[in-house]
Specification:
Layout lengths: L2 H41 L1 E5 L5 E5 L5 E3 L2 H9 L6 E3 L9 H4 L6 E4 L6 H6 L4 E4 L9 H5 L4 E3 L7 H11 L3 H20 L9 E7 L2 E4 L6 H8 L17 E2 L12 E5 L4 H11 L9 H4 L3 E3 L2 H4 L5 H15 L2
Parallel strand pairs: 3-6, 4-5, 6-7, 8-11, 11-12
Antiparallel strand pairs: 1-2, 8-9, 9-10
Helix pairs in contact: 2-6, 6-7, 7-12, 8-12
Amino acid sequence: MSPTRFLRRAALRSCAAAVAGVLLLSACGDGGDDDAKAKAASDTTRQITDAQGREVKVPSAPKKVVALSEPTLDASLALGVEPVGATAGRGQRDMSTYLKDKAGTAQVVATVAEADMEKLAALRPDLILLDETTGAKRTVDKLQEIAPTVVTAKLNEDWKKAFTDTADALNKKSAAQKWLKDFDARITDTKKKLGDNAGKSVSVIRWQDGAPSVVGKGDGVVASTLKALGMTRPADQRGASAGHSEPVSLEKLDTIDGDWLFFGTLGDKADGEKAYAGARKATNFGRLKAERDQHVVVIEGSAWNSAGGPLSADVVLNGLRAALAT
């Protein structure tokens, strides 16, 4: 082969390689930039200060979140984050019934009392969220050895602040603020439609083991929503709560009475209906004004009895609106 022909072929091969390279880069560029940006975000971290004053480096775009409390699970789901690990609902073996359908394939790795460290670690999370409503708050140092751990709220924290602080840990604070703006607009609209029910007294109780317990006192989701709507509470349901719930003896059944009585259990509405059927057989239950006026409303108790969060607040508002708004 002559030197001229050899050089010509070499030049052609070089051009072909260059064209192929350009095409390859072009193909990679079709969505490749977005993939690169997503990977870059998942590989970067942000530093935040949690509710305990701890400085924690968290992923900018967490992919495998574990939520060890009802409020952090509730908030994550409200923001479109489906955790890989979650907590069981209060008094339940599985997630709270009002959250379970939204939680997808999340595995239960904790209860209100404690977290199962072995199950949690097996999920290989990149972010762990909890607050002081759960016993896992005592094991933050051990949790931190598994993944960055953020305590989002103190005990009895205002639920809206707890929500936005959880959102901050997830790098979704603006989405939380929009959610709250929409919620407040619905509060305003509902209040305008209360009609004759404006300012009426509302009792909220959980029926368990044949007797009631008062729930929703203090500044949680139930009390704050009722207050925002301008509703009142029976005398024994005002002020801060001594605990998550306060048992009431059947001898003092009249203390739970109100213009309206919202009635539930720790389970779903169907469980509440069964409990209501039993409560109606209790001595003096039929004498309650709310019962006589057919103003007893059976509720999705798992949401009304939860430690709070945006989705539980939504359930509470929807229940009040359906019963009271005209």
